[in-house]
Amino acid sequence: MKKLLLCTVLAASLISCQAPAEKGSDHSHESTIIGYEFSDAGEKQNLIAGDISIIDTYMEFIQAHNDRDIDKIMDMVQDSILIKTQDARELKGKSTHRQALEKWFPESNPVWTVRWMATNTVEVKDGENRHWLTTGIEITETLDNKEIKREQILDVNFVGKMIKEVSIYERSKPIE
Fold it and tell me: Helix, strand, or coil here: 78?
């Protein structure tokens, strides 16, 4: 009985003295596949966990909107920016984007509040990976001295630290 107890204690001691495995070492060189995107040709492309550094760029972009800093906003988007609006319009290029903001800001004094964000990257064969941020925001506008809130989900495509495309999906806030 003493030998069995001694062997058990000795085995437990040896096991507890082993160096812990490095966290994530099994997957340190592998991408985490979180889903799939299908190309226009129907080809399945891996959707992997994205680069969270684009979150900082996006938050700077939202702050520029809240500060009404149109020049900074223009510095953060590509010349060929494409914005697909919730009402099926497409705003193409910086000048169209600037005109829309110059009209909208004084009309309704919009304020953006970010509620959540998630990044992903589409692994593209024979091409550059596409980096996306999907975010839920709330926009508060003041129209005719009345505050109106809307909820939006945006898909934002980044190339480097520049915004290339934005797709907007929206619903009005529920009436309480």
Answer: strand
